[in-house]
Amino acid sequence: MRVPKIGASHQLAPLLLGMVKTILAAQVDYSQYVNPFMGSEGPFPGQGYGGGDIFVGGARPFGVAKVGIDTTAANWSTAVLNGGWTPDGNVTAVSMMHESGTGGAPKYGLIPQMPLTSVDSPVNLLDNLTYSQPRVGNDSASVGYFKTLLQNGIQIELSATRHAGIIQYSFPDGEKHVLVDLSHYLPGSPGDANGQFYVGGEIQIEDSGKAYTGYGTYVGGWNNGAPFTVYFYGEFSTAPGTARTFTGTNTDPMPRYQTLANGGIVQPTYGNVSDKATSGPMNDRIGALFSWDSESTSQISSRVGISLISTEKARSYVESEISSWKLNDTVQSAVEEWNQGVFSKTRVPLNSTANMTNVRLLYSSLYFIHLMPSDRTGENPLWQSDEPFWDDFYTLWDIFRCTVSFYHIYQPTYYESMIRGLIDIWKHQGFLPDGRSGNWNGLVQGGSNADNMLADAYVKGLRGAINWTEGYAAMRTDAEVIPYNTYDPTDLSASTKEGRGALGDWLELGYVSQDRNTRCISRTVEYSLNDFALSQVANGEKPSDQEKYLNRSAGWQRIWNPDVQSLNFTGFLAPKFSNGTFNNTGYDPRYCYDCEWLAYTYEGVPWEYSFVIPHDMETLIDFMGGADTFDSRLDLMFEPDMSVQNLGSNGAGITTIINIGNEPDFATPYLYNYINKQAKSVQRSRGLGYQYFKDEAYGVPGNSDAGAMNSWLLWQMLGIYPVVTQPVYLLVSPWFPDLNMTIGNNQTLRITANGLDEGYYVQSVKINGQAWTKNWFEHEDVMTQGGTIEFELGPEAKAWDTGSVPPSPGHRTV
Ligand SMILES: *[C@@H]1O[C@H](CO)[C@@H](O)[C@H](O)[C@H]1NC(C)=O
Ligand SMILES: *[C@@H]1O[C@H](CO)[C@@H](O)[C@H](O)[C@H]1NC(C)=O
Ligand SMILES: *[C@@H]1O[C@H](CO)[C@@H](O)[C@H](O)[C@H]1NC(C)=O
Ligand SMILES: *[C@@H]1O[C@H](CO)[C@@H](O)[C@H](O)[C@H]1NC(C)=O
Ligand SMILES: *[C@@H]1O[C@H](CO)[C@@H](O)[C@H](O)[C@H]1NC(C)=O
Ligand SMILES: *[C@@H]1O[C@H](CO)[C@@H](O)[C@H](O)[C@H]1NC(C)=O
Ligand SMILES: *[C@@H]1O[C@H](CO)[C@@H](O)[C@H](O)[C@H]1NC(C)=O
Ligand SMILES: *[C@@H]1O[C@H](CO)[C@@H](O)[C@H](O)[C@H]1NC(C)=O
Ligand SMILES: *[C@@H]1O[C@H](CO)[C@@H](O)[C@H](O)[C@H]1NC(C)=O
Ligand SMILES: *[C@@H]1O[C@H](CO)[C@@H](O)[C@H](O)[C@H]1NC(C)=O
Ligand SMILES: *[C@@H]1O[C@H](CO)[C@@H](O)[C@H](O)[C@H]1NC(C)=O
Ligand SMILES: *[C@@H]1O[C@H](CO)[C@@H](O)[C@H](O)[C@H]1NC(C)=O
Prior knowledge:
Elements: H1 14-27, E1 58-59, E2 66-71, E3 91-97, E4 110-116, E5 140-142, E6 145-149, E7 155-160, E8 164-170, E9 176-181, E10 196-206, E11 211-220, E12 225-236, E13 242-248, E14 269-270, E15 276-278, E16 285-292, E17 299-307, H2 311-321, H3 327-341, E18 346-347, H4 356-368, E19 374-375, E20 390-391, H5 396-399, H6 403-410, H7 412-429, E21 436-437, E22 440-441, H8 450-459, H9 468-480, H10 503-509, H11 520-541, H12 543-552, E23 560-566, E24 569-573, H13 606-609, H14 617-623, H15 627-637, H16 678-692, H17 708-718, E25 720-723, E26 728-731, E27 738-743, E28 747-754, E29 761-767, E30 770-772, E31 776-778, H18 779-782, E32 787-794
Parallel strand pairs: 28-32
Antiparallel strand pairs: 1-2, 2-3, 3-4, 4-9, 5-6, 6-7, 7-8, 8-17, 9-16, 10-11, 10-15, 11-12, 12-17, 13-14, 13-16, 18-27, 19-20, 21-22, 23-24, 25-26, 26-31, 27-28, 29-30, 29-32
Helix pairs in contact: 4-17, 6-7, 8-9, 8-11, 9-11, 11-12
The chain binds 2-acetamido-2-deoxy-beta-D-glucopyranose (NAG) (12 copies).
GO molecular function, one term: peptide-N4-(N-acetyl-beta-glucosaminyl)asparagine amidase activity
GO cellular component, one term: nucleus
Domain Glycosyl hydrolase family: 313-795
């Protein structure tokens, strides 16, 4: 019998053909469609400012280690070092921990190595500017792999596992050194109160310099985190000729402690190979220098493991996760993990008719939503627990709107684990986080948005091993307990760490007042949805609470001022004093008066926040004057040159009031569904998708925010949009002719778009084969057992949505 070759499929029996297809399907290398630089630049080519602030380097889905280069700031007023990698900075190190997509002062950039060709003067190992290196040519990166070439001729290649990294240096002829400066971290701009700092540590050389262990402790960063400690174990493929530890006085300008004015950066004092260097009582800077003879091999590799628990665990990760010294073995296993655990769950046509730009947007977006949060299960140094442990919710304010709903269907196992981890944080530390990083809650930008995440999971039926009695109790803490004031210089008025800082007003007045609190409008809006979230979970867990929280969820109506006029529209959210009167003096809802912590609204103007009431669109439309006015008011959001508020890097290049580069507006383009004008939702949202999301370095409109931006695009490409805290999805219009997605417990969601090449307006929809006239559906329709959504598309807008409008389950009148 002839063995048929794959490809000669006409010779295969149908059963065998099926098997071959299955094998082939499993073998598609989807990782090739990921552009790891999507979001790496902003509107000014070659600069990170206004861009995605993404991490570029080696990582696993939700992994602890994110291995990549750290760089200097070309200009502090436009610097964004948050992901470590920047297009224009000079390389200061390869380090093991990073965030992706965050704004504000950087966090992490920890446990470094820096390869050097000389350590002679003027190089000072305690002064990165004396040895940092420009790069030559373009960096290259693919899933699980990164490569750069330094000006001094050293090539760096790297990859990562979940808790470790492998770095391969190719040195030019001559001296070869690797510096480990434990006091290295990604700095904030000078004077930034939220910058992070090195606190101390220890480094011990082992095995005649072939290995080293120790720990470093760091404090601060955007979330004002307490000190936390990272343990490490590093080893080299080739024993160095010499290895020395060093120490030096810490002159980093940590507020109130050190200052450079005391005489500048000192020179290191060397120890020797048997040394253990410790930071001691004055938190000295410490590190080690490993040097190889000029004759030694040009290729030197290093494997480094990290742990939040111990050096032993850090060492065990290297042993269990990177058994080979071949870089490509780790790259290969990273690619397999991403393909298997992430990319292969979404299948679209990849044949000659496929729009490969869209295919790359799809798989790149899937990549970027899986970099954070970090699954630190087994890595909890704070308390004993059998529950999973997660960090780097950075932040829920960004990802509650549609990222977590994606995890719900796409990564149910991870998602259940995340929620258990969140509840365990509440159980042992008192509050659910809104942001969390470095084992520390903070900051809270608006409401307590873990409430929304938990409610979203709850109403969609996620149970598993989640203890919902405790889940609901955690949410009740947010709703009932005023968090103690952390006196954060960013906003001294109330806690920025956790909970609802303005809860006192909320409980007493039913809204957040302008005279007693900051961010009065945006916090009222967010607390309203938070309490709706409580009512949703109370419905199952404590029915006697449900009515109370539903009533509280209408709090936004108390700050709706029907007399405020702007751009010919009447009725807006407005600042209100605690005595119950509105402040009408000079209020203009097109402005937020700097849009930060002390403003009326956070990162968005009241015009935008006045649309963000997903639980009671019915009342909102009524307040705005009915469907027609609502329609034209929404239209105005999309008019160019209407924005007057300068949003800085949060609004780069955007002149409409709607700013899809910032999360509060994520649902706004879809709101036409609530007046049965679905065609306009399609037109508006698709317009934003095409205009602002590109398979390019400037590929997302502003910070990717831990993948929040990418998740918005993912839903847009699927042609559906989730209404957070409700088991409801709005129907839009898909970007692919055919898409199969493995969801839930190995179910299949299939979304087809017949006629897509003619146009993207919906002509008709069938769900599970049934004609559909509503422009929305419920979770159980296709998301629990799988199902099909068949779109018939065409070039003409059509009023096909004649069924009932999407629900307003929080409908209330105050
Ligand atoms: C990078 O280093 C080069 C050469 O030392 C220097 O001219 C340049 O200003 C540095 N750039 C940054 C962003 O630090
Ligand atoms: C740094 O950037 C700011 C803001 O764009 C600009 O005004 C300033 O001139 C830049 N400084 C340097 C030294 O290029
Ligand atoms: C590098 O040196 C500069 C100047 O001393 C300092 O501001 C920065 O924190 C150092 N570290 C890094 C990683 O850039
Ligand atoms: C490792 O993989 C990369 C990309 O897959 C390839 O370019 C390179 O040649 C490989 N290197 C070795 C040593 O196999
Ligand atoms: C989706 O699944 C269906 C049913 O198994 C199959 O016929 C179709 O080819 C698949 N489409 C894609 C793009 O994988
Ligand atoms: C490519 O895939 C699409 C969608 O599955 C299908 O309709 C089309 O016939 C395929 N084209 C080719 C050339 O195979
Ligand atoms: C692919 O889709 C993009 C939108 O993402 C569109 O701009 C482009 O024209 C399409 N390309 C082709 C060849 O149709
Ligand atoms: C859930 O948590 C509550 C409160 O801590 C506890 O009494 C209960 O036994 C837990 N339920 C389960 C199934 O573990
Ligand atoms: C408001 O209405 C006036 C009078 O009809 C008109 O001149 C003006 O252009 C309108 N403004 C906007 C923003 O539409
Ligand atoms: C309410 O408080 C504001 C600000 O303190 C004050 O200007 C206003 O007169 C007060 N109104 C009433 C009715 O007390
Ligand atoms: C009322 O609002 C205006 C404009 O926003 C502001 O300048 C003023 O301080 C506010 N009045 C009070 C009493 O807070
Ligand atoms: C998922 O289902 C497919 C067929 O529907 C089956 O081939 C595959 O083994 C299942 N995978 C798991 C992990 O259960």
